Inverse folding.
């Protein structure tokens, strides 16, 4: 009964973008492969796997404040190319071309559109993402989801990354309602979305399609394995 009462007060929902609404692995693979082909760098799935793992490792460091975004964007290529003996004229050019491919990829996770359509009838929906601003906006425009979204909060604009309290303080200021009991965040990351929700003092719901996280978990108030289950929890 207590949990139901907490959810009954919800008015605003923060939605993570990548791997919650948008199919990031698909976009990343397409953009990386296309970029390597554009610059005539020998491509292999092993090269992509190394890049993907390195990119994730560095994003985790960014969440902890141990690396800056500009350094991340070049270091991910420098490290991978060094390991594979690949020489390029400019990793900045590589990164710029990668972004140009990435921002065209608005493929959504199954039922993301149905979830947003259902939720927006009763709640105000806000994207909360650490994505790079031009790429994030490009992909969201391609996704077909923007008609359901009230506003978009991107770390590049805010100057702080999830899971920092400052990221969410900015969001609360823009929304204009400081009652934390009216908010919940849905996302796939424990270290970014769930910890961010905890730092912000709001309810959290983990999207865990592979059921990797055991409950109870100190960072998660709720957990779902199917996106549409989130609407069911709220109702």
């Amino acid at each position: 009964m207590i949990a139901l009462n907490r959810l009954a007060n919800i008015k605003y929902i923060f939605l993570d973008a990548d791997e919650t609404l948008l199919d990031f692995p698909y976009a990343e693979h397409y953009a990386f492969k296309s970029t390597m082909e554009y610059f005539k760098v020998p491509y292999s799935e092993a090269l992509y796997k190394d890049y993907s793992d390195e990119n994730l490792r560095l994003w985790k460091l960014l969440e902890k404040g141990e690396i800056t975004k500009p350094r991340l964007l070049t270091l991910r290529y420098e490290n991978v190319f060094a390991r594979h003996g690949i020489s390029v004229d400019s990793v900045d050019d590589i990164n710029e071309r990668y972004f140009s491919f990435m921002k065209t990829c608005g493929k959504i996770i199954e039922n993301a559109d149905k979830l947003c359509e259902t939720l927006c009838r009763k709640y105000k929906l806000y994207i909360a993402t650490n994505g790079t601003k031009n790429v994030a906006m490009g992909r969201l425009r391609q996704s077909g989801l923007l008609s359901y979204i009230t506003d978009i909060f991107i770390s590049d604009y805010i100057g702080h990354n999830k899971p920092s309290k400052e990221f969410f303080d900015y969001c609360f200021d823009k929304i204009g309602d400081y009652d934390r009991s009216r908010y919940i965040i849905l996302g796939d990351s424990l270290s970014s979305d769930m910890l961010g929700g905890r730092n912000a003092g709001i309810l959290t719901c983990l999207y865990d399609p592979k059921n990797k996280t055991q409950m109870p978990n100190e960072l998660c108030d709720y957990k779902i394995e199917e996106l549409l289950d989130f609407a069911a929890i709220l109702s």
